[in-house]
Amino acid sequence: MGAGFHYGPPPIETVVGSNDAMLSLYVAVLCGLVGVEVSEVMGRARPSRIVTVRHMAQAFARKEREYLLLEVGAFFHRDHASVMNAVSKVEWFLKHPKTASTYFFKVYEAAEAASLTVYKQPFKNLSICQK
Q1: CB of 50 closer than 8 Å to CB of 117
Q2: How confident is the model over 59-71, as a mean pLDDT?
Q3: Cys-Cys crosslink for 59: which of 72, 74, 90, 105, Cβ 3.0 to 4.6 Å?
Q4: What's the confidence (pLDDT) of residue 20?
Q5: Which CATH number fits the domain 15-118, given the four candidates 2.60.40.1120, 3.10.20.880, 3.40.50.1000, 1.10.1750.10?
Q6: How far apart are CA 4 and CA 22, in angstroms?
Q7: What is the DSSP track for the chain?
Q8: Residue 12: which pLDDT band, with cuts at 50, 70 and 90?
Q9: Where are the beta strands (DSSP E) in 24-130?
Q10: What is the pTM of this model?
């Protein structure tokens, strides 16, 4: 065994450990605002109301908090390709708002409110294009 290596979750003092705690809180706040269970978002359920929340949370982690694809995937128990798909779908709907459902915008508003609650910051990179 190498010196300094410890099995288990990283200490809370490390950047990854503290970010994961904050991201967990963000997901919990987002789910509470939208009325979806955290276990549904973190699980494998595929109804569109759950997938929309999951995609928005993954896009938030990737674009607003600048997590790596692998970090977002690990947090949500997905691979990096699933995260890339989620981010591209959210970005596409933000660029083409006329094609998005009203539920998408409800989740978007809740996601930004959760960001303000947890991180005290509005969205910088995920914004709706006005065309």
Answers
A1: no
A2: 95
A3: 90
A4: 84
A5: 1.10.1750.10
A6: 26
A7: --TT---SSPPTTSHHHHHHHHHHHHHHHHHHHHT--HHHHHSS---HHHHHHHHHHHHIIIIIS---HHHHHHHHT--HHHHHHHHHHHHHHHH-GGGS-HHHHHHHHHHHHHHHHHTS---SS------
A8: very low
A9: none
A10: 0.85
- How is residue 64 written in tokens? 């607003």
Mean pLDDT throughout 89-105?
A: 95
Measured from the Cβ of residue 127, the count of other Cβ atoms closer than 10 Å reads 12
Specify burial of residue 4 (Cβ count, 10 A radius: 0-12, 13-18, 19+): exposed
Instruction: Give residue 76's pLDDT.
Output: 94
Mean pLDDT of the chain: 88
Q: What is the mean pLDDT of residues 95-99?
A: 93
What is the model's pLDDT at position 16?
45
